[in-house]
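Long-time lurker. I teach an intro course on protein structure, and each term I like to show students one example going from raw sequence to a predicted 3D structure in token notation. This year I'd like something fresh instead of my usual example. Would anyone be willing to generate the tokens for the chain below so I can use it in lecture? Attribution to the forum is fine with me.
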Amino acid sequence: RRELQSRWSPAERRNLATLGKETNDFFSQFPFKMPNQALTGTTELFNVNYLAFGGRRDFVHTPFRVLVAGCATGAHALILAAQMESLDFHALSKVVCLDQSQASLALAKRRIAEQNLSHRVVYWHASLLDVKEEHGRFDY
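-- Reply from a regular --
Happy to contribute to a lecture. Here you go:
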């Protein structure tokens, strides 16, 4: 991230900050609606294990952290949390739901709580550009 930012001119950084504020303002006023999707199925995390870890990742005994950048109203975070729960992932496995819109995050929290999956999700009101090394490592 630092290497990429060092390539940006001051004008590009100002444009990015303006775009970030405009995007945040828009999605705060008009959050995405979450589609009515079934929470069944386990293909995504099986595919992650196969493609990223050669099928060797032990999700049951090792915590697994997923970052959903641009979480919006939580559709993807909800599906991943449901998969973690149904596959009996390690108790410390979490989905980190990151979004700049507090309105969208509030909807995500409510919808995830309705499915009794709040213990699997952490919410960050921030930009992807705010994520630092001290926030820890993400597996996916």
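Some talking points for your students: The first helix runs from residue 2 to 6. The first strand starts at residue 65 and ends at 69.
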